[in-house]
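Help needed: design a sequence for this.
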């Protein structure tokens, strides 16, 4: 099957799971195109997909300069660990950085966005599973960042919610527990900071997006099920 057919099938699945859980909101689909060429992204864009995810800035940059010539509405989320020296380029090409995993990164994002007068969305990546290693380890640190937001420290950044990666395991209960943890974090911090709209829960990948939607995901990040297997480099 091609990208177009895969996309249609995934969207159907997302809709039917959402319906089954009685969800009225729309779950967003981030098509993760890392390791796949611009031609694959263009194929998805022609099939109506506008939201993409990449985890390496340089790779994304090359690809999306080409894609946005043909599809100016295409949007890019950065979903991989971001080094400080890549932030300048990341904020140029992305509309959201989903993988903010330390406070230092926010200072750099603010500085770079201020320079180009751009407002960008971010998600706090939270470490919820035993095996994955990325993300904030402590809720306290995220709370401290949100206090900085409340104090007006980051006028060019819109905190929009949370992201996580579940552990890579066959154990469904461990995956579910990881997603529940992110949702609980969101609910508690949203309660503490009502002035921000922190509703986004970016959770769920090709192998576990059904569970994620059942647990309240608002945004699933799907690569393999749309573009096929990636070549391991
Ligand atoms: C690669 C990647 C995905 C997509 O994974 P698939 O299993 O191919 O759907 C999602 N999120 C992050 C952070 C990734 O790095």
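Sure. Designed sequence:
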């Amino acid at each position: 099957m091609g990208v177009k057919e895969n996309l249609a099938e995934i969207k159907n699945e997302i809709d039917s799971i959402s319906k089954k859980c009685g969800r009225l909101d729309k779950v967003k689909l981030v098509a993760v195109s890392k390791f796949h060429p611009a031609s694959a992204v263009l194929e998805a864009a022609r099939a109506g997909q506008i939201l993409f995810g990449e985890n390496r800035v340089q790779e994304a940059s090359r690809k999306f300069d080409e894609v946005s010539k043909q599809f100016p509405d295409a949007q890019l989320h950065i979903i991989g660990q971001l080094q400080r020296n890549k932030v300048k380029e990341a904020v140029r090409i992305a509309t959201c950085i989903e993988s903010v995993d330390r406070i230092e990164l926010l200072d750099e994002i603010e500085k770079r966005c201020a320079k180009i007068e751009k407002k960008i969305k971010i998600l706090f990546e939270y470490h919820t599973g035993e095996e994955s290693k990325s993300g904030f380890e402590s809720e306290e640190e995220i709370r401290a960042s949100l206090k900085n937001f409340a104090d007006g420290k980051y006028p060019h950044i819109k905190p929009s919610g949370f992201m996580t990666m579940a552990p890579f395991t066959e154990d469904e209960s461990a995956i579910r527990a990881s997603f529940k943890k992110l949702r609980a974090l969101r609910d508690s911090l949203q309660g503490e900071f009502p002035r921000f709209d922190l509703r986004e829960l970016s959770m769920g990948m090709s192998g576990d997006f059904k569970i994620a939607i059942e647990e309240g995901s608002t945004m699933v990040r799907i690569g393999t099920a749309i573009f096929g297997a990636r070549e391991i480099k």
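Residues 32, 34, 55, 79-80, 165, 205-207, 221-225 surround pyridoxal-5'-phosphate (CB under 6 Å).
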